[in-house]
Amino acid sequence: MGYSLWLVPPTNSKIISSLISTIKSFNCSFAPHVTIVSKIPLSTSIDEIKASLTAYFNEHSLPEVHIKSLHTGSEFFKRIFLRCQRTDSLVSLARFSKQTFANNNENIDQWVEDYDPHISLIYAEEKDCDDQELISQIDRLALIEKTWQGGKIQLVDTSAKLSEWKTVLDFDIPNSTSS
């Protein structure tokens, strides 16, 4: 699969604590994140990615994340997840990242139109979990309608199996905030 670029909430925010405890309650160990883009070739220079992100954030506003609602899906990576609003700043970062790091001749406008920002709470196959039982354990008040700006960008090597994923770059976005 290559690298994936994740947007993680600010380290000192209340929302990251709530997300981490929810994800851990489902026996998962991934960092809470909004995937910005995936399928970045492993041959891409990490230093170039860092330099490109630095230049981007010098010119653009912080990505804003607004958690809107809780959902279930049939995909492994979207089994139970929080849907996020398609803010202009988040979509702009996704477009930039797709074009700069993972432009594999897809129609960029269609890709951006299909971009579905979300925060996965569990990775699982449908047959492996009872959605309603798991959903009943989620503290919606701690998660829904929460927001943050900025945070951290993580570049994660997602080319191996899930248990072997590793973060290869932590990039702190300057002036990040949460509420």
TrEMBL record:
GO MF annotations in UniProt: 2',3'-cyclic-nucleotide 3'-phosphodiesterase activity
Cited Pfam families: CPDase
UniProt record, GO biological process: cyclic nucleotide metabolic process
Record-linked InterPro entries: Cyclic-nucl_3Pdiesterase, Cyclic_Pdiesterase
Source organism superkingdom: Eukaryota
PANTHER family in the cross-refs: 2',3'-CYCLIC-NUCLEOTIDE 3'-PHOSPHODIESTERASE (PTHR28141:SF1)
Name of the protein this chain belongs to: 2',3'-cyclic-nucleotide 3'-phosphodiesterase
Species of origin: Adineta ricciae (Rotifer)
